[in-house]
Amino acid sequence: MEILIQLVLSGILLGGVYALAALGLNLIFGVAKIINFAHGEFLMLGMYAGFWLMTLTGINPYYGAPLIAVAFFILGALFYTGVMRFTIYKPELTQVFVTLGLSIALQNLALMFWQADYRTIQTMPPGYASLMVGNINLPTDRVIAFGFAVAILTAIIVFLKTTFTGRAIEAVSQDLMSARLMGISPQKIFLLTFGLGIAITGVAGGVLIPSFYAFPSVGSFFVLVAFVVVVLGGLGSVTGTIVGGLTLGIIETLVGYFTPDLKEATHFVLLILLLAVRPHGLLGIKGAEKETLK
Amino acid sequence: MTIDRRTFGKLVAATAGASAISMPFVRTASADEVAKLGVLLPLSGPLASLGNDVMRGFELAKNLVNEEGGVFGKPAELVVVDVPSSTEATSQATRLITSERVKVIMGSYASSISFAASQVAERNKVIYFEQGAVANDITSRGFKHLFRFIYPASELGGGAAKFMLETVAPQLGIENSALKVALLYEDSSYGTAVGESARAVLAEAGVNVVDATSYSYKTTDLSSMVQRYKQLQPDVLIVCQYTPDGILFWRQAREAGLAVKAMIGNGGAHNVNEFAEALGDDVNGIFNAGTSVYIDKDGLVPETAALFERFHTEHEKRYDGRKPSAHTGMGFNAMWTVLKDILPAAGSMDTQAIRDAALALDKPVGSTIVGWGVKFDPETQNNTRAFPTYDQWQGKTIKTVAPERFAIAEVKAIPLPTWGKRGDI
């Protein structure tokens, strides 16, 4: 029994990591209907940001998260104004190739500047690597990352539901034409959404670096999982992201314990099943998977 | 498109003209005798870290040789292609052969890449020297143009298992039949081959293999495996991992307080500095079966001992004080042997001459900077004088502990002290 509790808790913590890694991707998709294939690379940049922050200034990325958020908000806004703005009403293929191209460019820039070495940091002093609750152990870094996931998610939901700007974002995501008629400027909303989405992704990278490692193509390790989480939880649904992340985390940990060889296959079996039975995801809006901006 | 008779005539004329122009060029290129070698390595993508290590070894050897006058009196040239994974191996090998016209390819460290690329080389009768990929099946295909410097995986995983039986188990004081061992390996051809050969040796010795598990090195979580081991309580772990998953596994083992009496790695993660940097003191005590450039140089023949020194000083000088890894050492060794011994003996870049020279090469154990000798088996074309060395992390550096001829330290810390008490190993 104890081992089951341990596994489910480990799964929940892993789910938090997955949700954190996927949130920015889903936010951008929900509003601008763009699937950002460079998402993994922004996560990679976030990891390097956390690494360099700690190595060069000694600031623990957990405290430095606001700094990373601001820097990545600006990066996201530049990403939108410099690149994505030109693709926004274009066919999906254009968007796919632009973001895919950007992904390859970012990977190779990282390789050029920082080489292929695996880099990581240690934030917890030795002996504080995990919290023990009875015989259940919870890795400290994962618990903190989970805390960040919950905090960011709550903040985003509160922002979207209660503020004027947040509701304008929701309006654009639901019906672009009506939003426009109400005097909302979609361009501004897209700019804001890209800024927010990339900022969340940057912070996610920053708080994941203590339990992972940064190298130029680390994004590819996470991006597939992020896609599965987003599809599982529901395209465009912020709450769905955490539900998707937790579901995947728990199932993966249980399968990994009982039949380790099938661990990696779980993602895709789950994805296939879900796409066959419920293509809009657990909490997604029916038809969201077919939506593009016209 | 339809081609009428007149257009067809023009096409024929154009093709004939083009080949007439290109033919003398081809002839001069092969008569010129520049040692132009293709290099095929993962330099970007998830395997890039060790790929770049090997590349530094290749480069350093080439530069040192060129500074001494090169090969055939001219500087040797390397044409480098980046192969992030086995998917690109075939096309890039073809490119090296057809458009760069290299007669020799140096590869590739990752077994899956080497397996695919050497197939193309064999088909085109281009010599392929593999410096560091261990999977058994690479050289079991009867290829005539493929030579491998490193020992096969069966000697690596099997060697790790024997080392465990001969050195670790007696110090633990546990009988083979009572010893519980778990095997964990990444699921590409490298890990699988190593894992299976270790399992075979253990089964023969009557050891209780409580678990044998594989996983993808691209995984983002291994906590479920760690939990599995917490339940199964193996005495010894024998693992075969690349760097990222190796770091992840040992970190998660620390977080969960997994207690094992010894862990033995098989190259990949467990002999590179990044592994130690990521884990700090907790790297201490881990064993590694593989290759090392931190061996006792008194075990080497005098000439090679001097080269060993030179390799270390030049590497640190030319690469910003960076200490060479085992992979850099193996890359250096292969390139140095090809440029210094094989090509001069062949006298030209002719495929048959190079093959004959390689087969005739006979260097005793201790005559290369990683301790090996060189003698290619006429059947398999594996290097019969390559063997794994066994190392242990002590004081956050990797130190060779066996075989005795190359050992610079004694085996310590069996059984492993608990987490947090590994600082003074």
UniProtKB/TrEMBL annotation, chain A:
Alphabetical UniProt keywords: Amino-acid transport, Cell membrane, Membrane, Transmembrane, Transmembrane helix, Transport
Keyword Hydrolase: no
Pfam families listed in its UniProt record: BPD_transp_2
GO molecular function terms listed in the Swiss-Prot or TrEMBL record: transmembrane transporter activity
GO biological process, one term: amino acid transport
Signal peptide: none
Membrane topology listed for this record: Multi-pass membrane protein
Domain of life of the source: Bacteria
InterPro entries: ABC_transp_permease, BCAA_transport_permease
Subcellular location field: Cell membrane
Keyword hit for Transmembrane: yes
Major subcellular site: membrane
Family note: Belongs to the binding-protein-dependent transport system permease family. LivHM subfamily.
Protein name: Branched-chain amino acid ABC transporter permease
Organism: Tianweitania sediminis
Taxonomy of the source species: Bacteria, Pseudomonadati, Pseudomonadota, Alphaproteobacteria, Hyphomicrobiales
UniProtKB/TrEMBL annotation, chain B:
Signal sequence, start to end: none
GO-annotated biological processes: amino acid transport
Domain Leucine-binding protein: 36-362
Gene3D superfamilies, per database record: 3.40.50.2300
Keyword DNA-binding listed: no
Family in the record: Belongs to the leucine-binding protein family.
The protein's name: ABC transporter substrate-binding protein
